[in-house]
């Protein structure tokens, strides 16, 4: 049979072997690479139905995979006003005022990407944004995705007039008189207001999700590890897949919340492997803590406000039990753990699970923002994947430690920010991702951030922890072969080799050699998933 795709005049870059001595490749109709060779030999394989593309010297890598993102919920969260580039209160107020003037009377104002650093030393409260939000039902998503700032009108419409008690780490932040300040920490508290806000129609959600995924394909992504699997979002992905409109290969992990009973855990186990042509359920997502910026991380010593002292699971032993049960069933886990105590508990839990039920299940820790020396080596010892998002360090912290994250932790712990180099050198398998919508999803920006560790909005600023930077080759491996390893698919994807998936990203130049500060502007020429072109530059 003739191949479905032939790429000619290419430079092939394999993360395991470097540049290959071939200029062309072919992809079978089953979506796998069938042959590598010179232009003449590979062109001769083409038939009348083969798509033949002359890449004119462009560089082909295995398809870039985002190791941690939220496409379905992110598509919904990013509707409304983007505040992610507003770096001071005046700019935030001006943007909110302009957005308010566009709205019909009584309509809700939605915004996302609010950086708590714009409040400086002041507490994050809705009052500070007065009078812009007076009388306006407004929800401002903070950049960390774990907190909302709700206006007084929004709280009133939701009937939130004082503190609440939750069965997981969450809080309606109140002042000394018991009045809500507008800050809502973690999902359970945010849901109090979210559930009374008008929602877009299902058709609107589907269109928005399709738009986001097309943008991701155009950025060079061929797949991602989606840390969510909510019924509605999963149903929309299944619809797009069935219609041939899903441009990414997605691995979805349902979320296991504290208090999950045996039946819930059993259903998550039974769901493993289900899916469609380009998506499937694989693994389970858990949370061990929240975030440093809002005081809900789990630290071994409190932050400067006396906060971040508790686990997300009220009884951490319950978390350990769940991880052991999932491990015993052969289900990999991915646990959000930002603080040092949270990371340590996850590693302890995996060690206990492996001792009770030996096996090759590949567990992961997500984020790993600050950890002490004695934790670093345990990732390799336990074969736990280190899943990290370097652009968080770039954009939400500062080299001089004057940012909210660093001030909360203090100099010693802020000096251990995102220890990518130390983990890599200790033998940990590292996967890189964006955590979109927390940070931008273009993978070239993620690769660049891992190398330069500078604020992406001002690359003239000094890097935060330059000694923790990765090389270009290491960063590429972390978004290709290591991502495949984390998914248990390193024998079928993440390489440019016969028999491996024809998931390919094509760039105008070598992404490992382009200067890190210029890398985000490198042109994406072509994106291919299973031999199907999902993005093609207009002039190609």
Automatic annotation (TrEMBL):
InterPro entries: Amidohydro_3, Metal-dep_hydrolase_composite, Metal_Hydrolase, YtcJ-like. Pfam families: Amidohydro_3 (PF07969). CDD domains: YtcJ_like (cd01300). One of its GO terms (molecular function) is hydrolase activity, acting on carbon-nitrogen (but not peptide) bonds. It comes from the Bacteria. The keyword Hydrolase applies. Keywords: Hydrolase. Residues 52-535 form the Amidohydrolase domain. Transmembrane segments: none annotated. This is Amidohydrolase.
């Amino acid at each position: 049979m003739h191949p479905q795709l032939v790429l000619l005049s290419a430079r092939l870059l394999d993360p395991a072997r470097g540049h290959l001595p071939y200029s062309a490749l072919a992809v079978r109709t089953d979506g796998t690479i069938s042959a590598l060779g010179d232009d003449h030999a590979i062109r001769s394989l083409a038939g009348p139905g083969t798509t033949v593309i002359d890449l004119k010297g462009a560089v082909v890598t295995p398809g870039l995979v985002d190791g941690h993102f939220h496409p379905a919920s992110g598509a919904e969260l990013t509707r409304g006003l983007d505040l992610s580039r507003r770096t001071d209160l005046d700019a935030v107020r001006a943007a909110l005022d302009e957005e308010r003037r566009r709205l019909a009377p009584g309509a809700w104002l939605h915004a996302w990407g609010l950086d708590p650093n714009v409040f400086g030393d002041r507490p994050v409260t809705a009052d500070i944004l007065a009078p812009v939000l007076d009388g306006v039902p407004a929800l401002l998503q903070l950049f960390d995705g774990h907190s909302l700032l709700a206006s007084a009108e929004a709280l009133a419409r939701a009937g939130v007039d004082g503190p609440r008690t939750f069965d997981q780490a969450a809080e309606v932040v109140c002042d000394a008189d018991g009045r809500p300040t507008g800050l809502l920490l973690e999902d359970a508290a945010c849901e109090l207001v979210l559930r009374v806000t008008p929602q877009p129609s299902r058709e609107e959600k589907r269109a928005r999700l399709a738009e986001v995924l097309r943008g991701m394909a155009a950025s060079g992504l061929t797949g991602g590890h989606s840390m969510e699997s909510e019924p509605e979002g999963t149903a929309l992905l299944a619809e797009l897949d069935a219609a041939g409109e899903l441009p990414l290969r997605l691995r979805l992990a349902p979320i296991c919340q504290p208090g999950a009973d045996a039946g819930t855990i059993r259903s998550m186990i039974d769901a493993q492997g289900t899916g469609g042509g380009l998506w499937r359920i694989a693994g389970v997502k858990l949370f061990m803590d929240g975030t440093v910026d809002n005081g809900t991380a789990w630290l071994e010593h409190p932050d400067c406000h006396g906060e971040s002292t508790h686990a997300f699971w009220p009884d951490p032993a319950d978390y350990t039990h769940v991880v052991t049960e999932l491990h015993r069933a052969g289900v990999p886990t991915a646990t959000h753990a930002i603080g040092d105590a949270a990371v340590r508990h996850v590693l302890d839990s995996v060690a206990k699970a492996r001792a009770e039920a030996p096996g090759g299940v590949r567990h992961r820790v997500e984020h790993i923002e600050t950890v002490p020396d004695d934790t670093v080596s345990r990732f390799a010892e336990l074969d736990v994947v280190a899943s990290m998002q370097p652009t968080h360090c770039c954009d939400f912290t500062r080299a001089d430690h004057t940012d909210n994250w660093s001030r909360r932790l203090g100099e010693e712990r802020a000096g251990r920010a995102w220890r990518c180099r130390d983990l890599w050198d200790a033998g940990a398998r590292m996967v890189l991702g964006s955590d979109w919508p927390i940070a931008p999803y273009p993978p070239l920006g993620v690769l660049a951030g891992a190398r330069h560790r500078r604020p992406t909005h001002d690359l003239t600023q000094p890097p935060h922890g330059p000694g923790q930077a990765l090389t270009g080759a290491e960063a590429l491996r972390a978004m290709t072969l290591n991502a495949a390893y984390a998914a248990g698919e390193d024998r079928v994807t993440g390489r440019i080799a016969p028999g491996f998936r024809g998931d390919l990203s094509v760039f105008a130049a070598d992404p490992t050699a382009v200067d890190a500060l210029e890398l985000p502007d490198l042109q994406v020429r072509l994106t291919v998933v299973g031999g199907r072109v999902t993005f093609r530059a207009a002039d190609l």
